[in-house]
Design brief:
There is one protein chain. By secondary structure, the chain is an alpha/beta fold. The protein has twelve helices and twelve strands. The chain has one domain: Glycoside hydrolase, family 3, N-terminal domain (TIM Barrel). Helix content is about 40%, strand content about 15%. The protein starts with a strand and ends in an 11-residue tail after the last helix.
């Protein structure tokens, strides 16, 4: 296996992609909307990916709810944005946590039917006034203790359903004044404040199995490199200060926040201490460049990958109809799905 996670171009595996997967052996595959043409075709694509690499490799997706939901109506339910759990938490803490955990469990059930076993969720970013809306209502709130509690509940629900959670975006994207999909955000806040706010939300979640970095410069700590390619941030903040010991993957290496070629970005993320490079856009030439730039998965990175996968467990059985009804009841005070999207 090589230390990267790849996207694919569409809902059907091409012959060129099949050869690429067989030859380069990515650790996993991430699903995007362009790969989704209904339940049966997606199950087939997931199965064909695993056949091509010759193992039961991880398959990931960004299925948060709200604006970030790769699976949706008419084939799958819609889920609330993270802020809805936060709003319910403010009214009734226990109800908010129960809804968050149940939401994670229901999402995991949807994914299990497709063979998808890793969800890039929870979001522990803590937004501030004036920040870019890229996080916005994806966040559970603006208080670190509340954010961490809801994030832990969502993660527990995913685990209950047999899916691995991915904690994002370490060490925090909430304060960024730019969308890292489009350009590089620079945060000038002092470290003491960051430790007490942004970083504080992630610290209680340090035992989660997988984490995703933020393409954000924290100039008080490293004035040049974003967290993804900063050894100071990865080693000094994520690993040491936060105590995160799980598998650390980059955010999408093709995002405009990063500079240099795809090969240079991939190599820089690995050199900084990321265990895994994520490449999402499904462009085969870039996929080949990433595969050539990253190492074989070995040493501590391989141990963390093995440990992460070992945390997957059999789903806790639920009465699906009753659980969906309870989920709707809990959230009715703060959120209603759009008509036709339940």
């Amino acid at each position: 296996m090589r230390a990267f996670i790849t996207g694919l171009s569409g809902p059907v595996l091409t012959d060129a992609e099949r050869m690429f997967l067989r030859d380069t052996q990515p650790w996993g595959f991430i699903v995007f909307a362009r790969n989704v043409a209904g339940s049966a075709p997606l199950r087939r694509l997931v199965a064909e990916f695993r056949t091509a690499v010759g193992r039961d490799a991880p398959v990931l997706i960004d299925q948060e709810g709200g604006r970030v939901q790769r699976l949706g109506p008419p084939h799958w339910p819609t889920y609330p944005p993270g802020a809805a759990y936060g709003a319910l938490y403010d009214l009734d803490r226990q109800a908010g946590l129960a809804a968050a955990r149940l939401g994670g469990r229901l999402i995991a059930g949807d994914l299990a039917e497709l063979g998808i076993d890793v969800d890039c969720l929870p979001v522990a970013d803590v937004p501030v006034a004036g920040a870019d809306a890229v996080i916005g209502d994806r966040a559970y709130g603006t208080e670190p203790v509340k954010v961490a509690a809801i994030a832990a509940a969502v993660a527990a629900g995913l685990c209950d359903g047999g899916a691995l959670p991915v904690l994002k975006h370490i060490p925090g994207h909430g304060r960024a004044t730019a969308d890292s999909h489009k350009r590089l955000p620079v945060v000038s806040t002092d470290r003491e404040t960051l430790e007490a706010t942004d970083f504080a939300a992630f610290r209680p979640l340090a035992r989660l199995p997988v984490g995703m970095t933020a393409h954000v410069v924290f100039s008080a700590i490293d004035p040049v490199a974003p967290a993804t390619t900063s050894a100071v941030i990865v080693g000094g903040v994520i690993r040491d200060s936060m105590g995160f010991r799980g598998l650390l993957m980059s955010d999408d290496i093709s995002m405009a926040a990063l500079s240099g070629s795809i090969s240079e970005r991939s190599a820089a993320a690995i050199a900084a201490g990321c265990d895994m490079v994520l490449h999402c856009n499904g462009e085969l030439a870039e996929m080949r460049a990433v595969a050539a730039a990253v190492p074989e998965l070995a040493g501590a990175a391989a141990q963390r990958a093995t440990a992460a996968l070992a945390q997957k467990r059999k789903p806790v059985p639920i009465d699906l109809a009753a659980s969906r009804a309870e989920f709707a009841r809990l959230l009715a005070r703060v959120w209603q799905p759009a008509r036709g999207m339940a």
